[in-house]
């Protein structure tokens, strides 16, 4: 599995060795939540929390492999039932091109997982096409 190196009992703060201070009092709910989630063990994160952190580009070194393993593990069931708008898949697909160029093994893994899926919504299909177009030279 891609995420075998990730200590899921540790938090992003612990893995990065960087504890953020308490967010400013006028911070948005999203900012306060992200600060909180960085301190939670990866094993305790829900899929929605994983999506939220990935969408904010937090802890990608550890969270992308975890998310990609989850997507690969669930792809056969999702393909059988039809894969509709999936927030985690969308968050992963929409990371900056440089993220994928710096981790080509993750990029190829995601592309392979997407090939397993059927009945992608038009929204997700556009994200897949953009992902592939931006990285066509390395896929």
Could you explain how this protein is built, in words?
60% of the residues lie in helices and 0% in strands. With 139 residues, the chain is mostly helical.
Q: Could you write a compact summary of the structure shown?
A:
With 139 residues, this protein is mainly α. 60% of the residues lie in helices and 0% in strands. The radius of gyration is 15 Å and the shape is globular.
Percent of residues in helices comes to 55-70%
Quote the distance from N terminus to C terminus. Answer: 20 Å
What structural class do you assign from the helix and strand content?
Answer: mainly alpha
Spans of at least 5 consecutive residues whose pLDDT stays below 50 are none
How many DSSP H or I helices?
8
The radius of gyration is: 15 Å
Report the order of strands and helices.
HHHHHHHH
What is the total tally of β strands?
Answer: 0
| Major sheet size, sense and barrel closure | none
Q: For the residues shown, what is the average pLDDT?
A: 93
Which key terms come to mind for this protein?
single chain, 139 residues, mainly alpha, 8 helices, 0% strand
């Amino acid at each position: 599995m891609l995420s075998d190196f990730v200590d899921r009992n540790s938090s992003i703060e612990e893995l990065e060795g960087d504890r953020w201070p308490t967010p400013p009092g006028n911070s948005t709910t999203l900012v306060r939540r992200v600060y909180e989630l960085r301190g939670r063990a990866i094993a305790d994160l829900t899929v929605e929390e994983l999506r939220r952190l990935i969408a904010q580009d937090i802890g990608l070194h550890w969270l992308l492999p975890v998310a990609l393993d989850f997507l690969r593990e669930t792809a056969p069931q999702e393909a059988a039932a039809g894969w509709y708008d999936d927030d985690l898949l969308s968050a992963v697909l929409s990371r900056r091109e440089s993220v994928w160029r710096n981790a080509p093994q993750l990029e190829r893994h995601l592309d392979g997982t997407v090939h397993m899926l059927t009945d992608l919504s038009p929204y997700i299909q556009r994200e897949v096409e953009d992902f592939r177009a931006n990285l066509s030279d390395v896929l």
